Each structure stands twice: as structure tokens, then as C-alpha cells.
Amino acid sequence: MSISIAIVEDEKNYNNALKKVINYQDDMKVVAQFFDGKDALQNLSDISPDVVMMDIQLQDMLGIEIIEKLRKGLPKTQFIMCTSFEDDEKVFNSLKAGAMGYLVKGESMDKILSSIRDVYNGGAPMSFSIARKVLSHFERKLPEIKGFDELTEREKEVLELLSQGLLYKEIADKKFISIDTVKKHVGNIYRKLHVNNKVEAINKFNHFKN
Fold it and tell me: Ranges for the Response regulatory domain (predicted)?
């Protein structure tokens, strides 16, 4: 069964070149071409293609906006961003919106074709330069969550009980300590995890557990 593909790209020559190369393959077929965002927004849901090759910077809107608006209605469609832009904000906004791939327009057609197959089979293809940005972004993020290692065993126990929904008094009774001691532990937990409230602390705790 061939992979159905829609191309959303306002650069006509590039759009047509993509279509030509894709249709030359035995296992994929272009079912729609769009040259502006408005047209894509109105018609993509009816077509429901397997893969959408999405230009990030269309004349009339951002490709990211289209994904945000259509994502829920197209749960089986995978979006690959095809773009000349490599700035961090556009990369991460695209991935947050639900794009599963991110390719720079200078990529070879072979890379684009293999990325379509990859995303169709559950992968997340990215141009090398984009993958490096994503990795360095997460490396920068890691120090923020190191605080968990600084917690004492008792503080970890208190945090575990907080995450189970227990109140300070219930934690105090369970651990045979005073409420003031519980509050002191909680204050230490917030300081070490760099959080301001219980919800943030529990979210970080769940992140560590996973």
C-alpha cells in the first residue's frame, strides 16, 4: 500500500520538484499540493494523508499554526517540517506543535524520501544540524533537574507522600514527626529542586521517577 503525501509549500518549483520525485517512487504518492496555508487549512482534514510535507514559513501564515489547528483532527497524519529556517524557536515550536520530523531544504531528495518512509513507520527524522540543536537544548536543560540527588532520604520520602496526595498532617502522622518538621522538609525540597510550589515539586518528582 502506498504512502499518501500532501505537500504544503509556496515555492512552486520546489513543490513541483518534490511531487515529481515522490510520485516516481513505487511506495508513495502525492495526493494533494497546496501553495498557501489557507488552502491547506481548509482541505487537509478531508484528505487525511499519511504524511504532510509542511513548509514552515508560508506567505500567509506559519506552517506551525496549521499543525496546531489540525493536529487533533488528523491523529494518523505525520507532519515533516521542510524549511530554510534553523533558528531554535521555530524548531522547538514545530516539535511542540506536533511535527515528527524537521528537514532543512538543502537536504538531498534521497534523504527526504527516506524521511517520509521513516516518519510513516513511526520514526522522527531530522536533518543532522537540527538533531544537534535538539540534543544541545536538552543538555542545557539537564542541570535544572539535578536537585533530586541533593535530597536526603527523608526528604524523598516526604516528596513521595506529597505526590500521593497526602496532607502535611497525614505525612506527620505517618512518619511520626511534627507538622513543623514536615514543613521544614518541604521547604528544603522546594529549595533543592528550584521550585516554588507543591505542583512543580510533584511534577519534577514524577519526571525523575520516569
Answer: 4-120
Cβ within 8 Å of residue 73, ≥6 positions away: 45
- Grid cell listed for 104: 532543512
Quote the CA–CA distance of 33 and 35 in Å, as a whole number. 7
Closest by alpha carbon to 81, among 31, 69, 66? Answer: 66
Report the alpha-carbon distance of residue 113 to residue 21 in Å, rounded.
8
Helix 198-209 to helix 179-193 angle (10° resolution) is 70
For residue 157, which amino acid is it? E
Q: Give dist(CA 39, CA 156) in Å, integer.
A: 53
Report if pTM > 0.70. no
Phi-psi region of 165 (alpha: psi -120 to 50; beta: other; left: phi over 0): left
For 76, residues 6+ apart whose C-beta sits below 8 A from its C-beta are 48, 50
Task: Report residue 142's pLDDT band, with 50, 70 and 90 as the boundaries.
Answer: very low
- Tell me the C-alpha distance between 9 and 56, whole Å: 8
